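sorry to bug you again but im stuck and you know this stuff better than me. what follows is a protein written twice so to speak, once as letters and once as structure tokens for the fold. mainly i need to know what kind of three dimensional shape the backbone takes. anything you notice is useful, everything is just below:
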Amino acid sequence: MLAPKKHDTAIARAQLYLNYGLLALASILERAGYRPRVVHGRFSEPEECVRRIFAEDSVAPTAPLLLSLPSSFAIPWARRATAEVRRLTPSTRVIVGGRWVVADDEAWIRAQLPGADEFVQGVADARIVDVVRGSSGSAAMPLARHARNASGATRLNYELLEDYREFQPSVEVSRGCGMGCVFCAEATEPLAALMDADTLAEEFVQLVKHYASRDIHPYLEASLFRPSSEWSARLGRALQRRNVALAWRAETRVDTISTEQISALAEAGLRVLDLGLESASPEQLVRMRKTTKPDVYLRRASDLLHTCHASGIWTKVNVLLHPGETPATIAETEAWLEAHRNAIKGLSVGPTILFRYGQASLGLLREFATHGASATDPEALDRDGYASLHLSPAVSHEAAKSEALRLSRSFMSARDYFDLKSFSYFPRSFSWETFRALVGATPDAAHSFRVR
């Protein structure tokens, strides 16, 4: 992207977010006989990034360039990058993917990126070789078809990734969710089966070989990590048989994993759990379609937080300020969080952003309007691919951003932030001393954590 999404600071720019989907496609192509390279644009100048790629002897102008768009925030960077490709090597075939951005509206994304040649809808695991060969169209394929194949089939070859030793690894263990949350693009996508525990243990063995180190922290990538008690126990046994012990991280809902499973998961190496609480206001939870029984939901969230804390698992709680929010609903959430402060390692808070995803986004905007929300810029959805929102007449977009920052800072120290980010997102060589120096060189107000 051209700049970090929330706060443009040196600390935000230092973070590495592995595009594991793109690396999976590259790994498939390599096994098919190609010699792909994976480069993350990060926050570089796009023209400089493109020039550097094509300046290398190993890159031919006739080779296709696959451009992955993780979100609509990447479009301005991609627009400049594709324009530079057209200027430098007009014959290069630029193929654009990104399931949530390309979506089902090729005319819109083509207008955004006139320098691109082709656009691939949906997920492409099963057809990427045909796409590169030029023998397949861009028609979308159902997620479930790929999810079953991808749950254990695509082993990532990290050596294809530029500076891979600086990235923490990822293992995609399932796809889909289907829990129906109103703000989620995977609300209706069925949850695929979780990767087999023995297969995951073998993935850990291969990661240790790739990195020649056990000082790595895999992220088990899943929109909804929902292991069974049997799976949790099997993973621990499988890792023990292979004599491999890695500290790992996952993300899930607060009402998905039972407290009984936590002990087994901790023994298997779970050290950080990102929890999608979203809100502690019963009214907002129902609006989000997180649950129809807020009391049960919040009770399970409370039990899970306390159990994780007792088991030595750090929890990073995600909170979403959603359409319909008022000072009273925010206060409800804050009071609940305050009651669980000792069990919370970190807090990630932000207002809802409405992303463009075909006609579905317009329907969602109409629903948000019934809660008093409105787009800050009526043209933004079509122009940029996303829109910021005034959440209600009582909570403007600017007020929501201010509240998000206040909440995050009140619950998270600089050390908490560093611990969580260095576990998964800071470069592996990034030190506490480097972090402190960057903090000291940045105005305190820019940070989402307490500096003092």
